[in-house]
Each structure stands twice: as structure tokens, then as C-alpha cells.
Amino acid sequence: MTSSALNKASEDTLESRAKRRILRRLPPPSTPTAKSVIDFTSNDYLSLSVSPHLHNHLLSTLSRSETILGSGGSRLLVNPATHHDLELRLATFFHHTQEGTLLFNSGYDANVSFFSTVPQSGDVVVYDEYIHASVHDGIRSGCRAQRRVSFRNNDLASLTSVFEELLDNVDENGLGLRLRNGTSSLFLAVESVYSMDGTFAPLKAMVQLLEGLFPCGNAYLIVDEAHATGLYGPQGRGRVALEELEGHPKILARLCTFGKALAATGAVIMTTPLVVRYMTNYARPLIYTTALSHLAIIAASCSFDMLEDGTAEALAERVLGMSRWFSKQLRERLIEEKIGIEILRVGIEKVDQREPEKWSLHFHSPIIPLLTSPPLSLTETKSYSPAHDLSSHLLARYRILARPITWPTVAKGQDRVRICLHAGHTEEQVAALVEGVVEWGKMRARVVQEDRVLFRTRL
Q1: How far is residue 89 from each of residues 42, 55, 63, 94, 230, measured CA to CA in Å?
Q2: Bridge partners of residue 191, in order along the sequence
Q3: Residue 442 lies inside a defined structural domain of this protein
Q4: 405 Cβ partners below 8 Å, 6+ apart?
Q5: Are residues 314 and 303 located together in one domain of the fold?
Q6: How far apart are the first and last CA of the chain?
């Protein structure tokens, strides 16, 4: 009886998603070296997952390693020297303190651990509306903060308004007064590079805002560098390093992950020694899980060798230069073919940092969303999805794998095909992507124009 009711409820819910074309499925099995399609979907920005140099370096390192398999349990039960040594190395690499550096099994675990434990009763968490789901889950999982408030993505005016409203608050048990006199804390959560838009948080301006509005020093910035690590800043240390904010007292925590540009597994948080001790006592994703295997730690360490020896820097320069070329070429072709933004829009405006020439490439991101409009044609049904159609066109005609991203992953009306460029892409492959997108845009523009003529005829 219970099983039958459970099955019906589950099937009905999944069927509802299927009708709205938002049902998630695992994609077909694939390998990074598969020749059947050209991958513009994965987060392998530096193409390190297919790098012969890294591959051979890892195998050589493993052949000299005494311990490879397993880890022995939670790090509170066993603390393998492999893990401890990587923490020491990362503290030096990221210009941080050893006692304030802590490994996690994933960026998800790290964010859940921080936000579910560190904010205290009476504190406030302010977060960008596009912050990663792991931060939301951390806030919902045991977080004792009194208020959780969002602001518009990368919008300093919206953020300022939120801060001023909180400081002026006189109704909620003296929250505004406590924030002004420093007896309550405020945590500002952002991503340095947003995974769906490829846009950048204005970190310097945010730090200045915190300094100006919270002179008691009780407001902190927490920066998720998951999509910046390996790509930006000296040796790929991220946008915090790029903006010369390493060690700034307003940045309480900085998260770098290994599973994207570094082609490894795991994450590290750089924070204060006190916060590390606190999370070691209260962060359930750290306490109640088996630590990463020695193999995973060794692989991550080999990836950091690529950052330290300059390999990654050259790859980052290549992929960011490719991003600049792709965006420019596609925009010019869309204008040339008179394909307006009502059909397709390339990317989202980046924050203008107005910095010297050294920043030129760093205005670009390997993540480029192709934002599709909702159905515009009389003949397009409600179930028609331009993002799915564009993705299918690229795969069928050009063997290009670029997946559609729709609600609930992004907000309603923000459907897109998310392009992820890799250092290993050839000029011919990127040029083919441009041609495929333009070809689809021309076809859709014709359908929309024919429908408009049909509509006027009927009138």
C-alpha cells in the first residue's frame, strides 16, 4: 500500500516535469577522448583531463607513492600525511596560513559546512541571487542566522540597498543596532565567476562597501572561486589574487575547488584558524564522511604542479583568448545576418572593472551563455524550447555537444545553451560552433518572420 502510493506520487511528479521539458536524466555514457562529438559542455576549461603531460606526470608520481588506495576513514579518525601535506602546500600556494587551510571532499561539502555552522544566532547572511545551490543548502541546514537576504546578481546598487535596509532595521530585536555596533555579524556570499553566466563579482567594490558601511569590522565576504581557480590571477590562484585581495581582513573565507579546471576532485577552504577549528567540531559533511582517497589527493597535487610550473597559465591564456575571439565573431555574424536579440543573445555584460591593460583577457570567461528567447512563433507550441532546439541542431549538424540549461537550474525566462570553451579546442572547432549557432539563428528568424506575415494576413 505504502509502496504503491509512493510510486504513484513519484511518477506523477516526474511526469509533470517531463511535460514541462525540465525532467533531468543522466546523459549517455562518454569519455573525455570520445571522437563522436566535440565537447562544449564540461567544465574542463584547461583541457587538463586529456593532457598527456598531466597524465604521464600522475602515473609517474603514483609509481613512486607508497600509499594510493583508500584513506582510512574520516579525517577526525585518521589524518593521512598525504592530506596534511597537501594542505601545507596549498597554504603556501594561496599565500595563506597553514592553520586556516582545510580540505573537503567537494566544493558542495565545503559550502554546506561553512554556512550551516559559522553564522551564529542573530547574524545575517546576504547572498547573490545566483549563488550556488550548496550555499542555499548550507543556509537551510542548521544555519542559525537571524536573516537570510538575497540581492540582484552582481548589482552593487541592489546590495547597497539591502545593507542600508538591514542597518536601518528597528523592528527585529534590534538587528540594525547590533549590526551597527558590531555585536552581530554579516556574511556576504558571492561567486567570483558565476557558472551559468560567466560573469564576475565586483570583489574590490564589495570589499570597499563592507568597509564603509560596517566600520566595526563585523561584515565579511565569502568568495567561491570554483570556476576561477586555475584560470585567473598569478599561477591561477583565482580572481581574489587577481584583484590583489589575498589576505584582506574582509575576506573571511575563500573556496577553491579541484574538479573543474584542475581535472581532479576535492576542494579547499582558506579561512581563519578559529573558523577551521570550529568547522572541525561542528561541520557534519567533514566529520561524518570518509576522507578523499590518497589517489584523489595525489591527483590534485599533480594538477597544482601544472599551476606552479606555468603550464596552466599558458592554457588559461589560450582559452580566454579563444573566448574573446568567439564572442566577437559570433556577435558580428549575428549582426551581419540581422539576427536580433529577440532570437538570440550572446552572453551577459561583464562588470566593468576599468583596470589597466593587464586585465584585457581577464574580462573574458570560458563560460558563454547563448540566451534564447521564449517561443515567438504562432506555430511554436508551449512545449517548444528554443534552447533544446539549438542544442539539438548543433549536435545533429555539427557533432557539437552543448547542453540546454533551463528552469529550475536558471530562472524562468533565462533559458540558454551554455557554452564552455576548452584550451584544447581547435580554431576550426570554434569556428564551426559559430557557424552552427548562426545557421540555427537564421532558421528561427525565418520561422518567426513568416508567422508575423501570416498574422498580419489574418488581420
Answers
A1: 28, 21, 21, 9, 16
A2: 224
A3: yes
A4: 196, 369, 387, 415, 416, 417, 418
A5: no
A6: 57
Q: Is residue 10 part of a domain?
A: no
Residue 180 sits in a domain whose CATH number is 3.40.640.10
CA distance 343 to 376: 8
Q: Domain limits at 378?
A: 33-51+310-458
Letter for the amino acid at 320? L
Contact 389, 447 (CB under 8 A): no
Alpha-carbon span 262 to 423, nearest angstrom: 12
Q: Are residue 77 and residue 226 in the same domain, yes or no?
A: yes
Which one of 308, 335, 366 terminates a domain? 308
Amino acid type, 261: A
- Whether the pLDDT of residue 339 is over 50: the answer is yes
Q: Which own/partner pairs from 377-386 qualify as long-range (CB within 8 Å, at least 24 positions apart)?
A: 377/447, 377/448, 377/451, 378/451, 378/454, 378/455, 379/447, 379/451, 380/447, 383/19, 383/21, 385/21, 385/415, 386/415, 386/444
Q: What average pLDDT does range 70-81 have in this prediction?
A: 93
Length of the chain: 459
The answer as to whether 360 is a domain residue is yes
- Domain-located, residue 73: yes
| φ, ψ of residue 200 in degrees (nearest 5) | -115, 135
Inform me whether the pLDDT recorded for 14 exceeds 90. no
Count other Cβ atoms within 10 Å, centred on residue 224: 32
CA–CA separation, 171 and 197 (whole Å): 37
Q: What is the mean pLDDT of residues 370-395?
A: 82
What pLDDT band is residue 28 in, cutting at 50, 70 and 90?
Answer: confident
Torsion of CA 173, 176, 182, 188, to 10 degrees: 110
Q: Is residue 319 domain-shared with residue 399, that is, in the same domain?
A: yes
CB atoms within 10 A of CB 212: 10
Phi, psi dihedrals of residue 417, rounded to the nearest 5°: -100, 120
Same domain, 296 and 409: no
Alpha carbons 155 and 189: distance in angstroms, whole number: 13
CA–CA distance from 228 to each of 43, 243, 259, 438 (Å)? 11, 12, 12, 29
> Given the DSSP bridges, would you call strands 416-420 and 404-405 parallel, antiparallel or unpaired?
antiparallel
| Number of structural domains in the chain | 2
* Vertex 201 angle, CA 197 and 204, to 5°: 160
Alpha carbon 141 to its chain centroid, in Å, reads 21
Q: Which of 368, 325, 365, 101 is nearest to 232 (CA)?
A: 365
pLDDT at 187: 98
201 and 278 fall within a common domain: yes
Q: Among 308, 324, 344, where does a domain finish?
A: 308
